[in-house]
Amino acid sequence: MIEIIDISMFSLKLKATIQKSGRLGFTRDTANAIGCNKEISVKFARDSEDGDALYMIVSEKGATNSLSVSKAGEYYYVQAKLLFDSLGIDYKTQTVMFDLVRMSNLDINLGGQVYKLNKRIICKKEKNN
Fold first, then answer.
1. What's the CA gap between 50 and 53, in Å, rounded?
2. Alpha-carbon gap, residue 6 to 20, rounded angstroms
3. Comparing 3-7, 26-30, 95-99, which segment has the lowest mean pLDDT?
4. Rounded CA separation 55/47 (Å)
């Protein structure tokens, strides 16, 4: 059977950025796409064969090993400072962004909607005094 591919899921660029506070903040499009609300949590996973591969799993609120999604105004975020610190991610001197790639083939194994977090780093410019 031939079926039309729904390209709407490929037209949005899903992104998240680590703020200086250690919060992982979601863009509005990303928050809408992953269904952000106060009733979900996110978990993080690493690939044992690829230490740099980081995954985010969207699951129900209060799931084991998960962090709650919080909201400030129209902005959704996850307080993941300790996680990023433990992974050695330098979000204080660099802008660390992630492009989210949907990995639906991993949903059943990891227990939620799975997104691979592809890291992009932009060095922050020093301010001249």
1. 6
2. 36
3. 3-7
4. 8
Q: Quick one: tokens of 62?
A: 């209060």
Q: Comparing C-alpha atoms, which of 116, 121, 90 is closest to residue 14?
A: 116
Question: What is the SS3 string spanning 53-95?
Answer: EEEEEEEECCCCCCEEEEEECCEEEEECHHHHHHCCCCCCCEE
pLDDT of residue 11: 67
Cα separation, 13 vs 8, whole angstroms: 11
Q: How much is the pLDDT for 51?
A: 72
Cα–Cα nearest to 21, from 106, 78, 104: 78
C-alpha triplet 10, 29, 65: angle, nearest 5°: 95
pTM for the predicted model, two decimal places: 0.84
